Amino acid sequence: MDKVFDLAIIGGGINGCGIARDAAGRGNSVFLCEMNDLASGTSSWSTKLVHGGLRYLEYYEFRLVREALIEREILWQIAPHIIRPLRFVLPHHSGLRPAWLLRLGLFLYDHIGGRHLLPPTRSVDLVHDEVGKPLIANRYSKGFEYSDCFVDDARLVVLTARDAADRGAEIHTRTRAVEIRQVDGIWQVTVENTISGTRTTINARALVNAGGPWVEQVLSSGSGVNARAKVRLVQGSHIVVRKLYAHDRAYMFQNADGRIIFVIPYQDDFTLIGTTDRDYDGDPAKVKASEDEIKYLCASASEYLKNPVTPEDVVWTYSGVRPLYDDGASEAKAATRDYVFELDTPGGAPLLSIYGGKITT
Predict the structure, then answer these.
(1) What domains does the chain contain, in order, with CATH numbers?
(2) Residue 103 belongs to what H/E stretch?
(3) Distance (Å, rounded) from C-alpha 34 to C-alpha 39?
(4) Per residue in 211-228, pLDDT tens?
C-alpha cells in the first residue's frame, strides 16, 4: 500500500512551514506542497517586523498582542542572525491620539507580554534628541521610543521549512495541489509539478489548508467542504526610498485617518515605508502598489519629515494580500489580525483551514 502521511499541508508560507516544523518535531510524518517558492505570497510581503502590534490594542485585541509579544522574544532568541531588536519612535501629534493614551498603550505594551530582554519605553524630547532631527522643526516636541524587532521574513520561512525537513518532513516547492478528495477516511491529494506538469497523488490522515489568500480556492478543488468562514483579502503596499536619515531608529507615524505607517531603516542604504490597508478584489498573484497607495505613503511620511518624500523618490515597491478572517468589520484596518481556524471532517478525516495570522505568531 502507498505510504499514508500523518499530515499533508497545502501552502509554504509561515503558517504551513511552522505547522510542518511543529508536527515533524512531534514525530509525525509530514508532506508539504507549495505552488510557487517558499514564502512567495503573504509571508514575504510583510513590513518585516516581529512585533506585538501596538495599534491592535485600540481594537481591544489584548490576547493577540500578548501572545505576539511573548513570541517576539522567543523568536529573537531562536534566530538572532535574522531577527534584531529595533527601537521605534512614536511622535505625539497634537489633534490625534492624546499623549496619555499613547503612554498608557506603551505601558501595556511593555508589561503584558513578559518583556525580559528588550529595553523598555522611554520618553524623548524631539526638540533636542537626534531622533527629532529628521522631523519638521517645531512641529513635534514630545515622543516615545519603544522596542520591537525586525525580521528577514522570507528567510524565517525558509529556515523553518529547512528545520522541518531536517526532522523528516517532505517539502515540495513548485508543486500545486490540484485536487483533494477523501477515500475511506483518508485524504488523497493530487499534486502537479508546475515545471514538468507531472502529477502524483499522496495520502494523508489529516489535511491542513494553509493556502493564505488562496485558502478558499483550495477548498473548492473537490474537498467536499462547504466552508462557513470567509476570507477578507486586504492589500498592504510598501515603498522603498533612499536612506532618509543617519540614525538607526524606526518611526511609527499616526495619520489623520486613524491609520499608522512605519518608516524603517532597510538594507543599509534604504528606508522602507508602509503599509496601506484596503480591501482587495482580484487575483492575489497580480497585486501591486497602486498610484494612490504610493501617494498616500509619501504624503503620510511627509506630514512628519522635514524633507518631503515624493513618488519620484520611490526606488521600488512591493505589495501583498493579507488573508484575514472576514469578521464583518466595516474598515480593513479594523478587521481582526488574529487566527481563525475552521475544522471540517467531511468524510471522517480532518481538514483544518487557516484564516488570518501574523508572521510573529
Answers:
(1) 4-43+155-230+337-355 (3.50.50.60), 86-150+231-328 (3.30.9.10)
(2) helix 99-111
(3) 9
(4) 999 999 998 877 677 777
